[in-house]
Automatic annotation (TrEMBL):
Residues making up the signal peptide according to the UniProt record: none
PANTHER family registered for this protein in UniProt: GLUTATHIONE-REGULATED POTASSIUM-EFFLUX SYSTEM ANCILLARY PROTEIN KEFG
Record's keyword terms, sorted: Oxidoreductase
InterPro entries: Flavodoxin_fold, Flavoprotein-like_sf, KefG/KefF
Membrane-spanning intervals of the chain: none
Stored Pfam families: Flavodoxin_2
Domain of life: Bacteria
Listed name of the protein: Kef-type potassium/proton antiporter accessory protein (CPA2 family)
The keyword Oxidoreductase is annotated on this UniProt entry: yes
Organism (species): Maritalea mobilis
Lineage of the species this protein comes from: Bacteria, Pseudomonadati, Pseudomonadota, Alphaproteobacteria, Hyphomicrobiales
GO molecular function, one term: FMN binding
Length: 188
């Protein structure tokens, strides 16, 4: 069976990253997870949509790991979605390739959680900024899973970072196990 989880890490400077680099390493340690380092694979920013669609075939879950940049994902992740989730594949006539797959966002923010509230500098809860991703999932018939959020990513305690990495690992393991259970029940 192909690895059921695709973990897409979108960070333009992973060498300087604290949180996202740690979480990408956490994901790499889990059997059943393929890790795609977008900025490494596409340094010129030209995403090969057809290649990416093949990469998703057979996956049950897509995880998007990224730092929040100006209330959204870094640009190359948007380009990846634009090029990959195409008409006739992700949506529209016969466009059901993503139907039933899970979408999990795993996000790091610079700000503390309290900054994402009516009294905070960002004025809105983080969930509201994630609406385009949520609706994209819905439009393509995907299951939206509760995002994993790591606030205050550059200044948090080391123990906290490690604990969050463990939480991500458990979540990924659960998704891998759920996929193999489903495959066994289909094969039975
Ligand atoms: C261009 C840019 C825009 C950013 N915009 C936001 C933002 O809108 N909200 C926020 O909380 N942090 C913002 N940050 C902070 C990053 O989210 C934070 O540095 C990152 O999640 C830390 O993860 P890393 O250690 O993996 O780089 C921004 C950082 C950069 C470089």
């Amino acid at each position: 069976m192909a690895n059921p989880v695709l973990f897409v890490i979108a960070h333009p400077d992973l060498g300087q990253s604290r949180a996202n680099r740690h979480f990408a390493a956490s994901a790499k340690s889990i059997e059943g997870v393929d890790v795609l380092d977008l900025y490494k694979v596409y340094p010129d920013m030209f995403v090969d949509g057809s290649h990416e669609r093949h990469r998703i075939d057979g996956k049950s879950t897509i995880v998007l790991q990224f730092p929040i940049y100006w209330y959204a994902a870094p640009g190359l992740l948007k380009e990846w979605i634009d090029r990959t989730f195409s008409y006739g594949w992700a949506y529209g006539t016969n466009g059901n390739a993503l139907k039933g797959k899970n979408l999990l966002l795993s996000i790091a923010t610079g700000s503390e959680e309290k900054a994402y509230g009516p009294e905070g500098v960002h004025h809105h809860p983080l969930d509201e900024f994630l609406l385009p991703y949520k609706q994209t999932a819905r439009f393509c018939g995907m299951n939206w899973l509760d995002p994993l959020v790591y606030y205050h990513a550059r200044a948090s305690e080391k123990d906290h970072l490690i604990a969050h990495g463990e939480k991500l690992k458990s979540r990924l393991s659960e998704l891998v196990h759920a996929a193999s259970k489903q495959e066994m029940s289909h094969g039975a």
